[in-house]
């Protein structure tokens, strides 16, 4: 492992701490009795306190020093004075440990008392301090110049998502997103618990990936010697519980779909699903309005939420628009009653890609997604989906071609999906078999037939309404974040590229090329001042790594530096 100069120095300081008999990673409990926020909110002059946190800045002036300590709730100023900390003749703890062996990023515990500086800042007068963790890597802290301009911010998205632990330390506002996320889920729990619904857990590893149309992740159970799937939805298990006699159940579920990644999709995501007996989708629309109004108030103190350049109002009620009406309004095509070939022709006329694996449901879904979805900024229920799009949904009571289903659109994206649940086992079996035909056509997102779920329905499930709400997307809306990666602590990332290990000879050649990008071969060899053997070895190694390219034009040869992704 190659260490930077700062990392090497920090390891040397680590050794010196141990030479002084100081354990830089002590095991004993440190008796913290306050946080920075508590001290500011309940300030009392001279109060004795014990706090701990990360050293984030300091200004050493001889035998005195002001510093900032950051804990889970913010920062507070601390004041180190050599003669207050070292009461006897031995001043090592201040002169050596504090001034020379501590670094920004180290975690320390402080015992002292509160006072206010002449400029009115609440501060802890340090009487003693304890090293709790010696940091071996320097934090990427931003710097502010005299004109207030900020430099060296830790704001590269890939680095922030990959090193979220650093992001949370140096960008404290990021923590607020995740605090609000918990506030949102707690609000939903409060809403359901107050109505007597039971929070449950269902299997993540499933023999059948049911409850949605999506491509699953596949694994293998060695002891049982069977394939298993990471769940794509928890719907079918929750419905089993309704069959079993629960009137209302819900679950915050981690679901997994082996599909694309973008600003609104992560292969691992969180969905809240709720199922309530003796209800229908009209009741669920009313309930969803009440729920989201409460969530907005609990998380932001208002129903009006700023999302990008839009202001979205979650105050009930929300418009209710049938999907076929929406398609007609935004495309001019009335697709009611159209067969698969007619729908394929509509897609062609609208320049919407459609392949032979798509059935009626997918074709309609593509038309709506491409031409309609983005128009619905304010919360809007899109209702009454065609039967082919909804294999788990009850047939519409007024039109057998449709189903009692809605999707909630907010800011041009689907936030929730809900049904009057299909509880006719014969109809459900036929719908599954229709999905099987789509699978045989090549649709790798078509649903599997879950024989055990069909058996459960044959025992009888009461009329039920269910809903799934994408928690990650809901948090994005409530925190005004455009990317799902901003609301996941640890989003899925491509494997981290290992830094290239270059020999000394290779480094010499690369350093010259970095200044000029392209150099005549003879000039480069002369400038490198390497022996023929070292030159040949260096160039061969760089070519193998794809870092250099020799371009031949007539009698001239030029070496070009190759840009790396």
TrEMBL record:
Gene Ontology CC terms, in alphabetical order: cytosol
Residues of the Aminoacyl-transfer RNA synthetases class-II family profile domain: 181-495
Alphabetized UniProt keyword annotations: Aminoacyl-tRNA synthetase, ATP-binding, Cytoplasm, Ligase, Magnesium, Metal-binding, Nucleotide-binding, Protein biosynthesis
Chain segments annotated as coiled-coil in the UniProt record: none
Cofactor info, note text: Binds 3 Mg(2+) ions per subunit.
EC number(s) given by UniProt: 6.1.1.6
GO molecular function terms listed in the Swiss-Prot or TrEMBL record: ATP binding; lysine-tRNA ligase activity; magnesium ion binding; tRNA binding
Residues reported to bind Mg(2+) 2: 414
PROSITE patterns recorded: AA_TRNA_LIGASE_II
Compartment(s): Cytoplasm
Cofactor(s) the protein requires to work: Mg(2+)
Catalytic activity: tRNA(Lys) + L-lysine + ATP = L-lysyl-tRNA(Lys) + AMP + diphosphate
Keyword Protein biosynthesis: yes
Subunit structure, as described in the record: Homodimer.
Name of the featured protein: Lysine--tRNA ligase
Organism of provenance: Sinomicrobium pectinilyticum
Lineage, opening ranks: Bacteria, Pseudomonadati, Bacteroidota, Flavobacteriia, Flavobacteriales
């Amino acid at each position: 492992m190659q260490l930077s100069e700062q990392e090497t120095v920090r390891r040397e300081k680590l050794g010196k701490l141990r030479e002084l008999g100081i354990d830089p990673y002590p095991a004993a409990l440190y008796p913290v009795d306050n946080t920075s926020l508590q001290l500011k909110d309940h300030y009392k002059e001279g109060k004795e306190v014990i706090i701990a946190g990360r050293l984030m800045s300091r200004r050493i002036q001889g035998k005195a020093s002001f510093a900032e300590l950051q804990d889970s709730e913010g920062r507070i100023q601390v004041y180190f004075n050599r003669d207050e900390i070292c009461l006897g003749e031995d001043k090592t703890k201040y002169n050596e440990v504090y001034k020379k062996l501590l670094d920004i990023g180290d975690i320390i515990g402080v015992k002292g008392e509160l006072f206010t500086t002449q400029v009115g800042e609440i501060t802890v007068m340090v009487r003693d301090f304890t090293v709790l963790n010696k940091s071996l890597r320097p934090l990427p802290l931003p710097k502010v110049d005299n004109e207030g301009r900020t430099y060296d911010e830790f704001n590269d998205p890939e680095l922030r998502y990959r090193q979220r632990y650093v992001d949370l330390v140096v960008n404290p506002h990021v923590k607020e997103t995740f605090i609000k996320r918990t506030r949102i889920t707690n609000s939903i729990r409060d809403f359901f618990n107050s109505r007597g619904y039971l929070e449950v857990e269902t299997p993540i590893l499933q023999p059948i990936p049911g409850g949605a149309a999506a491509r699953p992740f596949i694994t293998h159970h060695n002891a049982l010697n069977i394939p298993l799937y990471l769940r794509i939805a928890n719907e079918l298990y929750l419905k089993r519980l309704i069959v079993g006699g629960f009137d209302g159940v819900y679950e915050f579920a981690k679901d997994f779909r082996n599909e694309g990644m973008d600003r609104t999709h992560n292969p691992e995501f969180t969905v809240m699903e709720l199922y309530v007996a003796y209800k229908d989708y009209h009741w669920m629309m009313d309930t969803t309005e009440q729920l989201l109004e409460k969530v907005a108030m609990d998380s932001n103190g208002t129903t009006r939420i700023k999302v990008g350049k839009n202001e979205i109002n979650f105050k009930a009620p929300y418009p209710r628009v049938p999907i076929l009406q929406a398609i007609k309004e935004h495309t001019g095509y009335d697709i009611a009653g159209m067969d698969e070939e007619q729908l394929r022709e509509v897609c062609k006329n609208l320049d919407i890609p459609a392949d032979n694996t798509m059935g009626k449901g997918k074709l309609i879904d593509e038309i709506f997604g491409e031409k309609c979805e983005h128009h619905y900024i304010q919360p809007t229920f899109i209702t009454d989906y065609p039967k082919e799009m909804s294999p788990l949904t009850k047939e519409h009571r007024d039109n057998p071609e449709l189903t009692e289903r809605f999707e909630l659109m907010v800011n041009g994206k689907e936030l929730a999906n809900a049904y009057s649940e299909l509880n006719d086992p014969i109809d459900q079996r036929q719908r599954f078999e229709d999905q099987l035909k789509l699978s045989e056509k090549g649709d790798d997102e078509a649903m599997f037939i879950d024989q055990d779920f069909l058996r459960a329905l044959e025992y009888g499930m009461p009329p039920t309404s269910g809903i799934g709400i994408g928690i990650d997307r809901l948090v994005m809306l409530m925190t005004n974040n455009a990317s799902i990666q901003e609301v996941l602590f640890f989003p899925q990332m491509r494997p981290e590229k290992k830094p290239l290990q270059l020999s000394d000879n290779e480094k010499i050649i690369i350093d010259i090329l970095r200044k000029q990008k392209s150099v005549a071969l003879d000039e480069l060899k002369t400038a490198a001042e390497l022996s023929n053997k070292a030159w040949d070895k260096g160039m061969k190694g760089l070519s193998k790594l794809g870092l250099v390219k020799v371009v031949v034009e007539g009698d001239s040869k030029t070496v070009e530096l190759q840009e790396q992704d």
